[in-house]
Backbone:
């Protein structure tokens, strides 16, 4: 009995070993694949979706040079301009000090707003586990009015010229094509423009990206401002755009009712509703050039 | 009787565990694209490879997203727009080392024949490799070329001057006995 049991055991062991030997080599390697953290890439393609901030921060040592332009016509104008009556441009620089932390600033021609912002990526969505199903970024910007434009009047006192915007941006890349972000926003405008009854506003920003092809995506965003009457007190901003990537250059084409490039300006000081009439429709063309000031060193053995 | 069983066990032990497989866990694969516009290079230091010494069969498996580039944006474009590593996460190779000599200690040049799957397209390839042996450790190294269009990797017309039509791939695998 004892012996039989030994024989049975050894035969089954042998069988097991031969079975293990016959295993596919690739299957053996699949078991050895390293468990590294995989952060979701490219929820959005740049620091901006169309005019507003996205959840993205760039990799350490990346400098983004942003040239944004917008073209639009005067309402009820008899002038027949060649392309557009009015034009504004923003020149901005955005630098990633770490993978999570970005500082940026810029100046705009038409509204003369100077702004600066800081962005911190708190949580990064992960592909390899469910521990981080969303990305979260904290955003703070400060802007300074330097002149009157449209219905916006430059305050006498320089401390009244400041505006502050704080955002918590929640975003999720649902699949390879579709990303969505929601950003609860607090806006503090030191000056009371457009008959505002308050200096403090709460807003909710929505942004989405849909990838049309490997280098082209559709982007859209909307900001809803609570506690004001849409109309004389400004309109909520909407933007619809196409992002096109060519190597180190990102071109963004958009249709929007926002005149400004600054956060406070776009969220709060929108003078017109989104429609295709003269004066309301702004055609935006932005070019973002990405410089890598710190390059990774590759260690190649042979 | 007991002696026979013990012998049998010893035999079974050796036939099963005298491991005839060797594995490289930190193999290196790098690639180069040379054009007059720009040079692109990337390296992957987490490539897995295994060889069955009994028959010379070899397999290679790697995650495409483990490639590191000099520029972070290139890495993003490589994964998102070219090899589409979210859909095709791995490069796999399965083949056989022709006339593999496991005994000799001098460096030998051999041909590896097999099928490589990249970006969902499987192609038969032949790669010349140098095999060096140090006791039970082996080193395989070499290089070969891959056509970008052979694997349905789409390069937009505007960027064609930036990316070479044929990419040079270099590899170096250091193997140790499998099962430790």
Residues:
């Amino acid at each position: 009995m004892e012996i039989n049991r030994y024989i049975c055991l050894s035969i089954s062991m042998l069988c097991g070993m031969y079975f293990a030997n016959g295993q596919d080599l690739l299957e053996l390697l699949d078991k050895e694949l390293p468990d590294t953290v995989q952060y979701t890439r490219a929820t959005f393609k740049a620091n901006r979706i169309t005019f507003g901030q996205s959840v993205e921060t760039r990799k350490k040592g990346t400098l983004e040079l942003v040239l944004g332009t917008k073209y639009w016509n005067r309402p009820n104008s008899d002038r027949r301009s060649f392309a557009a009556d009015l034009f504004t441009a923003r020149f901005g620089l955005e630098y990633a000090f770490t993978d999570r932390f970005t500082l940026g600033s810029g100046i705009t021609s038409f509204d003369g707003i100077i702004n600066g912002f800081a962005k911190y990526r708190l949580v990064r969505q992960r592909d390899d586990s469910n521990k981080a199903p969303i990305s979260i970024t904290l955003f703070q910007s400060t802007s300074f009015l330097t002149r009157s434009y449209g219905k916006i009047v430059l305050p006498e006192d320089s401390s009244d010229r400041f505006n502050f915007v704080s955002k918590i941006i929640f975003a999720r890349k649902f699949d390879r094509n579709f990303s969505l972000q929601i950003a609860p926003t607090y806006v503090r405008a030191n000056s009371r423009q457009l008959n505002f009854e308050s200096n403090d506003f709460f807003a909710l920003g929505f942004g989405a990206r849909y990838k049309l092809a490997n280098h082209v995506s559709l982007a859209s965003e909307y900001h809803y401002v609570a506690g004001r009457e849409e109309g004389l007190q400004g309109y909520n901003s909407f933007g619809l755009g196409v992002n096109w990537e060519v190597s180190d250059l990102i071109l963004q084409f958009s249709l929007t009712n926002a005149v400004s490039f600054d956060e406070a300006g776009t969220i709060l000081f929108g003078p017109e509703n989104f429609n295709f009439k003269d004066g309301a429709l702004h055609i935006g063309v932005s070019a973002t050039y990405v410089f890598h000031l710190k390059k990774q060193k590759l260690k190649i053995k042979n | 009787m007991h002696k026979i069983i013990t012998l049998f066990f010893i035999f079974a032990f050796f036939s099963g565990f005298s491991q005839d497989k060797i594995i490289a866990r930190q193999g290196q694969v790098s690639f180069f694209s040379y054009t007059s516009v720009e040079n692109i290079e990337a390296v992957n230091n987490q490539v897995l490879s295994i060889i069955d010494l009994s028959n010379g069969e070899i397999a290679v498996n790697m995650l495409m997203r483990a490639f590191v580039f000099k520029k972070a944006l290139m890495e993003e474009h490589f994964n998102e727009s070219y090899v589409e590593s979210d859909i095709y996460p791995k490069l796999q190779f399965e083949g056989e080392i022709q006339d593999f000599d496991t005994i000799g200690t001098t460096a030998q040049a051999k041909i590896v024949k097999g099928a490589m799957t990249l970006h969902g397209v499987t192609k038969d390839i032949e790669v010349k490799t140098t095999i060096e042996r140090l006791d039970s450790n082996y080193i395989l190294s070499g290089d070969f070329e891959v056509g970008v269009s052979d694997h349905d990797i789409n390069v937009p017309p505007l960027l064609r001057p930036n990316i070479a039509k044929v990419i040079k791939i270099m590899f170096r695998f250091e193997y140790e006995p499998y099962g430790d």
